[in-house]
Write a structure and sequence with these properties.
By secondary structure, the protein is an alpha/beta fold. Helices cover about 30% and strands about 25% of the residues. It has nine helices and 14 strands. The chain has helices at about 5-20, 95-100, 105-110, 175-190, 205-215, 250-260, 285-290, 295-310, 330-340; strands at about 40-45, 55-60, 70-75, 85-90, 115-120, 135-140, 145-150, 150-155, 160-165, 195-200, 220-225, 260-265, 275-280, 320. The strands form three sheets. Strands 1-2-3-5-4-10-11-12-14 form a nine-stranded mixed beta sheet, with helices on both faces. A hairpin with a 2-residue loop joins strand 7 (about 145-150) and strand 8 (about 150-155). The termini are far apart.
Length: about 350
């Protein structure tokens, strides 16, 4: 991706995401709601802390990825060694503090430790973040940016104007980070958990549906991918970025991926260019996946279901359409929290 394209893409995404945050839900609202008014608890723990105190806070893990990452967490008073652990993957704005705050009430209600991961934008472009590092050297030639509503931007270009190299070396993908963050959370809280749940919205949803496909042997229990912009289909005959050809994945990997508890959570109102966020359009993606996020998610699920039946693989993926919600990470976080509260295993 050229430097000019990166700047345009980053500014368009950042502006779109800033505008979809309701002003009544400001950063930190409710942050002390389950801490009995205790110190308003914004612990800056620095590098690789040994313990996580109750409250909200942040720390840095320098040994992950290409430049480390920041973790914004909430540890409610009711958290115990047997309490759930949730990892949250933000959208393209990388606003992990806001995503953490969106989960505070749910964390308080359930005793869940929540950790939202902040990957630096200057080191993780679209290829490294949205695509999970499965491609590199990405270039968008002649992209057309269009502001289609107060909160939404589209990027339109021809398929042949997207150029990249496929990364078949699994350690270079982003996905192993999530297990390693989980292991750090277990260590710093004396947790007895052996698995974790994980939620991502928009770009975070893109990462997580790919996580289920590319890393089916992870320690994740439930993977919730919400309102993804476009998909990599679990199809070895399709070329990257919409398929798995030349990625090094095998039919066994795909079969195992279908056994993951991947939940595709889609906002019923997130189905056109004006719904919010940034949406990529190319002739092939539009024809094969649909024009809006709701249609794209449904087509992805249907294709995966058919593919699993074809290869006689167990299929544990779920499709959840949430009425009354568009491209809104706070509302989708609440819906995801309700879903997780209903899970008993």
């Amino acid at each position: 991706m050229t430097e000019k394209t990166i700047r345009l893409l980053a500014s368009s995404i950042a502006l779109s995401l800033a505008l979809v945050v309701p002003p009544s839900l400001a950063l930190g609202q409710g942050a002390t709601s389950c801490f009995d008014g205790a110190a308003a608890v914004n612990h800056a723990l620095g590098e690789n802390p040994e313990t996580l105190p109750e409250g909200v806070g942040s720390f840095h893990l320098s040994d992950l990825g290409t430049a480390g990452l920041t973790v914004h967490y909430v540890r409610p008073q009711s958290f115990s060694s047997s309490s759930p652990i949730l990892i949250v993957i933000p959208g393209a704005g990388r606003n992990s503090d806001d995503y953490r705050d969106a989960w505070i009430d749910a964390a308080c209600a359930s005793g869940t430790l929540v950790a939202a991961l902040g990957y630096p934008e200057d080191r993780y472009d679209f290829a490294a973040y949205n695509m999970g590092g499965t491609i590199t050297n990405l270039q968008f030639d002649n992209p057309s940016f269009s502001r289609v509503s107060e909160t939404a931007t589209t990027i339109t270009l021809d398929d042949e104007d997207i150029r990249f190299d496929v990364v078949a070396n699994r350690p270079d993908w982003i996905f192993d980070d999530f297990d390693r963050v989980f292991e750090k959370l277990v260590q710093t809280t004396d947790s007895e958990q052996e698995t974790y749940d994980i939620f991502g919205h928009s770009a975070g949803g893109q990462i997580l549906h790919r996580f289920a496909i590319f890393a089916p042997r992870s320690k994740a229990r439930v993977i919730i991918a919400a309102n993804s912009g476009f998909y990599t289909f679990p199809d070895l005959s399709r070329a990257v970025p919409t398929g798995l050809q030349d990625t090094g994945l095998t039919a066994t990997d795909v079969s195992q991926a279908f056994g993951e508890r991947l939940v595709l959570m889609l906002g019923a109102l997130d189905n056109d260019d004006q719904a919010g966020g940034t949406l990529l359009h190319t002739p092939y993606i539009d024809e094969s996946q649909g024009l809006g996020r709701l249609d794209r998610g449904r087509r992805f699920y249907e294709h995966a279901h058919d593919e699993a039946k074809k290869i006689e693989a167990a299929f544990h993926w779920q499709l959840q359409v949430v009425d009354g919600i568009g491209h809104n990470y706070r509302a989708m976080s609440a819906a995801a929290a309700d879903y997780l509260m209903d899970q008993t295993d």
